[in-house]
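Input/output pair, single chain:
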Amino acid sequence: MAYKARDGRERRTGWLLAGGASLAAVLVLKVVVPGFAQDGRYLYAGQVGGGYGFLDGWPVKALTVLALLAVTGGLVAVHLIGGRPRASDRRDVVQSGT
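Output:
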């Protein structure tokens, strides 16, 4: 279910947060990272334009996505299975009728 903003303040806050994050990313990539380099430039900036296409190397990309999904699914499963015994053995919960 999508979250609906209650008033204009929340929407404005969201836009300000998105703009601030974008500005911070540009600042880091254009000022901070080159500032740490000895010659004052970001070595990988020239490699961004000549990258691979979207479908180049798709087997590796597919395996990476599957591996991430497997790890995430495994962590969720461990959390759910591990949480059940704790949830059913809670002594601090006041039961109705007692």
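The chain has a mean pLDDT of 77. Residues 38 and 80 are 49 Å apart (CA to CA).
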